[in-house]
Design goal:
- The chain is of the alpha+beta class and about 160 residues long.
- The chain has a single domain (about 10-145), classed as NADH Oxidase (3-Layer(aba) Sandwich).
- Helix content is about 30%, strand content about 15%.
- The protein has helices at about 1-5, 20-30, 50-55, 85-105, 120-130, and strands spanning about 40-45, 70-80, 110, 110-115, 135-145.
- Strands 1, 2, 3, 4 and 5 form a 5-stranded antiparallel sheet that branches.
- Helix 2 packs across helix 4.
Amino acid sequence: MNVIFNRTSIRKYQSREVENEKVELLLKAAMAAPSAGNQQPWEFYIIKNKDTLEKLSKCSPYAGCAKEAPVAIVNCYRKDIIMPEYGEIDLSASTENILLEAAELGLGAVWLGIAPLNDRMQKVKEILGIPDNLKPFAIIPLGYPANEKKQQDRYDESRVHYEQR
């Protein structure tokens, strides 16, 4: 899976629109993620409106790139699940699947964390009109990358510990 070693966080995009078919593939990848007890707690908001993207770009000091993205996905998790303590863990797996599939499709994306910070989550809820039974997790701006970016080699052998017998 070379995509794991080639995926990077992309914050600058071409003005080119992302095809609906590719957005659907990203959502299929997201929903293929593992989840605790197979609870599949996710819901997704697809944002293409420039005014809404600009508002989302102000939800966090790190979200500025959202206003220039052709599309963003805001993923949320339901509060009424069997194991709510695993909602954010499940959404982490789902978000990573989106990022990997984006790279596979020639798109660039970045994970902008919203959860667990209540002020950021509340801003996103207000902007998108998200109902109370859902908790926003992340904003994932995406599009065709404006430039090439190589992934750093982050392997650090000093952080690996083998069990001693």
